[in-house]
Design a protein that fits this description.
The chain has helices spanning 3-10, 13-21, 38-52, 66-77, 80-83, 138-147, 167-173, 176-179, 196-204, 208-214, 232-235, 296-311, 331-339, 351-363, 374-380, 387-391, 403-414, 416-424, and strands at residues 27-32, 58-63, 90-91, 98-101, 104-110, 125-130, 154-159, 181-186, 236-237, 245-254, 260-269, 276-285, 323-326, 345-346, 367-370. Helix content is 37%, strand content 20%. α13 links the parallel β13 and β14. By secondary structure, it is an alpha/beta fold. Bound molecules: adenosine-5'-triphosphate and magnesium ion. Residues 38-39, 72, 158 line the site of magnesium ion.
Length: 428
């Protein structure tokens, strides 16, 4: 076997070509479907680029947070099954702000909001690797490009696609030549390590705009109803008819000082093929009380009373929730609950990821909702994408009553590690 044939047995043609072609432009961008091998192959290209990087200037890796850099990048780079003997040349401790790769120091930056740009202002960069590029603030990306001032400086980036008018597509991919950028679009078929069964399962687990982006790898707009797959006949169950609950995974709570505070109780059913279920709901809406708002101490009291009635001696139909997740911005309410001996956690508030989880679960009939979840039921059919934002390249929902939508997302997204294996039972 010649070297090329040998390489082709472990990498797809598209992967190989992208490594070679990535050196033809200053910026190389891999976009496309989930699990399509973008990170894997771009990291190969990055290792080559480190060996060739100019000696002056910094090498940096940029991601949403240091945590996501660890999870998305170093989990691959330090895995001997993936990077073999090369892992010996990677020195990294999870959480650290720098690493040493092939003898060069690499600085790590989280860039999750507009102010992150200040972190790299003034920096001279000779090589940058960017994870989840669409999630970066545009100002950060632009600043980063201006930092690539050393002769021979380069940038490698990966991303899942976003809306058609996302700044990364409009200003960079569509103007590739002018911007000295080369773009590679990947689908799962470009990753030779995936089994047909895994691909089939992945295809079945996405729906709507998420299918188009994460499976087909297309840049498309989110429009219309967010949960267009919602169907009362399929998803709504009378509380008395719910299947038995194996675990009470969490309560997700969205908090509002002036309008609505809502808590949703999420369970996992005790069935051969377990499903998630929104079992019950508690809410306080000032509009239902002649506009009267109540202080945190009173909200907490009412919430705890409700909670007690669910797992206390009288109403012991569910075990106590394993976690209570709150809107991460609800610091005052978390402090109040803490004072009242209730431990709560800041919810995972990655909006799009959370919406995708809920949409995909609903589409597969893996999430059911009891008729006690009044606010959820009132909102789920009204929840829609903001088409104006979409036209401007952003994925946003129309800002109106979406408190239960948020609470559900918090409970579901924040417990994903607790349920995904049982609910999806993926093969790979
Ligand atoms: N040529 C290959 N040989 C062996 N394993 C591969 C190959 N390409 C990719 N993989 C493996 O497939 C899995 C998915 O690849 P990768 O993480 O690069 O996908 P991705 O496109 O970055 O996905 P996401 O959009 O979900 O981040 C990883 O475990 C990776 O190591
Ligand atoms: Mg990736």
């Amino acid at each position: 076997m010649d070297a090329l044939t040998q390489l082709q047995s472990i990498m797809s043609r598209a992967q190989l070509l992208s490594v070679a072609d990535s050196t033809k432009a200053k910026i190389a961008l891999w976009s496309g479907a989930v699990r399509s091998g973008k990170t894997f192959i771009s990291l190969f290209a990055f290792l080559f680029a480190i060996l060739k990087a100019p000696r002056t200037g910094n090498i940096i890796i940029v991601g949403r947070t240091l945590d996501t850099i660890n999870g998305n990048i170093f989990s691959l780079l330090t895995n001997p099954e993936i990077f073999g003997a090369l892992t010996k040349y990677i020195k990294y401790t999870p959480g650290a702000k720098s690493a040493v790769i092939l003898g060069r120091v690499v600085h790590l930056y989280g860039a999750n909001d507009a102010s992150s740009e200040a972190k790299i202002r003034g920096l001279t960069v000779c090589l940058a690797y960017v994870d989840e590029a669409t999630i970066l603030p545009e100002s950060f990306w632009k600043m980063l490009v201006t930092r690539l001032s050393v002769d021979g400086a380069r940038m490698l980036a990966t991303t899942n696609p976003g809306s058609k008018n996302h700044w990364l597509r409009k200003e960079w991919i569509l103007k590739a030549r002018e911007k000295n950028l080369i773009h590679f679009a990947f689908t799962m078929n470009d990753n030779p390590s995936l089994s047909e069964q895994f691909k089939t399962e992945m295809r079945a687990s996405f729906t709507g705009v998420f299918y188009q982006r994460f499976i087909e790898g297309k840049w498309t707009n989110a429009a219309g109803a967010v949960y267009s797959m919602w169907d009362e006949r399929r998803h709504l169950v009378k509380h008395a008819d719910l299947p038995p609950i194996a675990r009470t995974l969490a309560i997700g709570m969205d908090y509002g000082t002036t309008n609505t505070t809502v808590a949703l109780l999420l369970g996992l059913t005790d069935e051969p093929q377990p499903r998630l279920v929104l079992v019950d709901e508690w809410h306080y809406t000032s509009a239902e009380h002649h506009g009267e708002t109540i202080p945190d101490v009173e909200l907490s009291r009412r919430f705890r009373e409700w909670l007690k009635s669910k797992h206390g001696p009288e109403g012991a139909y569910v075990p106590y929730p394993e976690f209570i997740f709150l809107d991460p911005s609800a610091a005052s309410m978390r402090a109040q609950l803490h004072a009242d001996q209730i431990t709560s956690w800041a919810a995972d508030n990655a909006v799009l990821d959370g919406i995708a989880d809920v949409a995909n679960l609903l589409a597969q009939g893996k999430l059911i909702v009891s008729d006690r979840c009044e606010l959820f039921l009132a909102e789920v059919t009204e929840y829609e994408w903001d088409e104006k934002a979409s036209d401007e390249g952003r994925d946003e929902v129309v800002k109106r009553d979406d408190h239960a939508m948020d609470a559900a997302r918090y409970a579901i997204r924040s417990t994903i590690a607790q349920w995904q294996h049982e609910v999806y039972a993926l093969a790979a």
